[in-house]
Amino acid sequence: MKSLICVKPGEFAMVETKEPLENAGHSILRLERLGICGTDYHAFGGNQPFFNYPRILGHEIAGRIEQTGSELFKVGDRVTVSPYIYCGKCIACRNSKTNCCVSMNVIGVHSDGGMQEYISVPNHLLIHGNGLEPDQLALVEPLAIGAHGVAKANVLPGENVLIIGAGPIGLATADFVRIAGGRVIIMDVAIEKLEFCRKIMGFIDTVHAVSEDTYLQLSVLTNGEMPTAIFDCTGNLQAIECGFTYLAHSARYVMIGLQKQEISFNHPEFHKREATLMSSRNALPKDFEHVINSIKNGDIQTENYITHRIDFEDVKEQFSSLRQPGETVVKALIHFS
């Protein structure tokens, strides 16, 4: 079979590898679709934390089962994958927080992922397609990231919620804020992304992050109160630190994005608001279930996210072009023959 390996930052190699062998407790999937994630872009660019090379990237998986010993699945079933391999024994796992296992191993990050024609996956990480099509299944994992963050923040109906970053995770977060009944405000540095939010996704309230009056715009949109929940979905240090200045009193600040540096903020201002700072990592099984139900009942329109499609054979040559200035890439899907 063919596998696309990220040999080092900036370099892919398409190689012939052996198909995975049958393994107790695992199923073998034939890839149908694979979403390209920000993690993949960062790994290719050499700025992804907790990463080693060489690596087969990709964790937004949609495939069919080729071999399985599981009683819950059969050959031919369409599935997606929860790519978070957890130990089941650490303090996080014992508290049902397998998304932040002490020994976390994310498929496509810490171990080889889906940029290959077949992959072996532990049975307990398989998720029934439940009638969804491959395009939809490839969106389940990134949507679950947003769903998890919104659940963690306990977004309430009617509250003003600011999402910083209009990439796929920011849009996923916005969709689940909307489903929870929150009022969505999206901020980004790219005007074309804000236009996409308004025209394609239907999020009307947007703020250009490089405007001189961003604080005033947010104040007007929130009737002078400022957002009571803020999600950073950029992983950009400057954006994260600016986010602290927009917090309402008693607000929650949730960091979904990840960057490598230390964060600083004004402690007295944060303290007098009795604000809450939290991180949101990966997703839980219940988040995947929420996403699949939301797609099936029409609350999530996955086709709105998909802006680019690439054949697996062409990824090596076309990958870099997806990150060129002016390319409004929300979600690119890899197609397997």
Describe the structure.
The chain has 337 residues and is of the alpha/beta class. Helix content is 28%, strand content 25%. The protein contains 10 helices and 17 strands. The protein has helices at residues 38-45, 91-94, 134-153, 168-180, 191-201, 214-221, 237-243, 267-272, 285-296, 315-318; strands at residues 2-8, 11-16, 26-35, 60-68, 78-81, 84-85, 105-106, 118-122, 126-128, 160-164, 183-188, 206-208, 229-232, 252-255, 276-279, 306-311, 331-335. α3 (134-153) packs across α9 (285-296). It is globular. The model has no long low-confidence stretch (mean pLDDT 96).
The chain-level mean pLDDT equals: 96
Following the backbone from N to C, one meets helices and strands in this order, namely: EEEHEEEHEEEHEHEHEHEHEHEHEHE
Q: What is the approximate shape?
A: globular
Strand content: 25-35%
Question: What is the straight-line distance between the termini?
Answer: 12 Å
Structural class: alpha/beta
How many strands in all? 17
Major sheet details = 7 strands, mixed
By DSSP (H or I, 4+ residues per run), the number of helices equals: 10
Poorly predicted sequence stretches spanning 5 or more consecutive residues: none
Helix content: 25-40%
Q: Using only CA atoms, what is the Rg?
A: 20 Å
